[in-house]
Amino acid sequence: MGKKRILVGVTGGVIGVLAVLLVQYGNPPNMGYCIACFLRDISGGLGFHKAAPVQYIRPEILGMVIGAFCAALLTKEYKSVGGSSPLVRFLLAFVGMIGMLVFLGCPVRAVLRLAGGDLNAAVGIVGLVAGIAVGIYFLNQGFSLGRASIQHSLNGQIFPLITIIITVLVVFGVPVFFASQEGPGSMHAPILLALGAGIAVGILAQRSRFCMIGGIRDFILFKDVHLLIGFLTMLVFAFAVNLFTGMFNPGFTGQPIAHNDGLWNFLGMALAGTAVTLLGGCPLRQLIAASEGNTDCVISILGLIAGAAFAHNFGLAASPTGVPVEGQWAVVFGLVLVLGLGFLGSKQFSINGGVKVEQNS
């Protein structure tokens, strides 16, 4: 157990350091490594939404998938599985992404924002914990997405192979994707540096089973700090590097790519926390498990990408000026939907016959 905790801690620390260094080399401030933001940019890069400032095929995500895929193959942990409640997974990921884009970040970015001095992130993290607690309540009531079953290996290989093809096109500069000329999408580190950082994180996260919500969930449920160590080391290391590089700027106002509407920061992350707890893992963990052959997690990634496209096509996502009314209503609707799914998936109205949920983390 000691070695596993060290590996989780190293993974969190490496993500924290790399995130700040990627900002130094061009990534948006306090967004060196945000899974939700980067999937949103990829959604735009693929043309799924037309918000010009947030379109870019992020090599960090591509590298993460490739690194995790290779690590799983080399350690013989790759296994093609799936088939458990795909539509429910898609819906949970879809509305969870809307919550994250109202907050303006995933659980990883919430920690990185706090490490950079953005105190709005603390409000979001409180909302995240509240959402995880709600998700735990439904898990304790018997909520289940069912167990994945063994599939033909081709099913699990499609996602990493498509990722490798996109990576080759990006590295060789084939002009087939959309790319922002201004805004966050235009801010990025050099391709090979970003790709290398992604590969490193993918390998470490695959070996450590790193999960941002898993640590909080396990601490609440079992008082187990194993995965929580990664959450804390990411915060500490990113904070230290921000101090060293002079990028630490404490306060609620004037924070990069953030707003200071506390209510919607809280509710956006509460929605995300509930959704990803019912999914069984944060967006980062979903990516890693998808790279290991879990096609259910691929469905979750597609739900996140589709949610990002919907949020930007219909003006739901927040901006530094605040949260649009449409985005506020979307969060309220999303909370009702997720709470409804949690209730219907509990013992009283069990999905897949009430089989205990198999957590991705």
Automatic annotation (TrEMBL):
Chain ranges passing through the membrane: 7-25, 56-75, 87-110, 122-139, 159-179, 185-205, 225-244, 264-284, 296-315, 327-346
InterPro entries assigned to the protein according to its UniProt record, in alphabetical order: Seleno_YedE (IPR026366), Sulf_transp_TsuA/YedE (IPR007272)
Keywords carried by this UniProt record: Membrane, Transmembrane, Transmembrane helix
Protein name as catalogued: Sulphur transport domain-containing protein
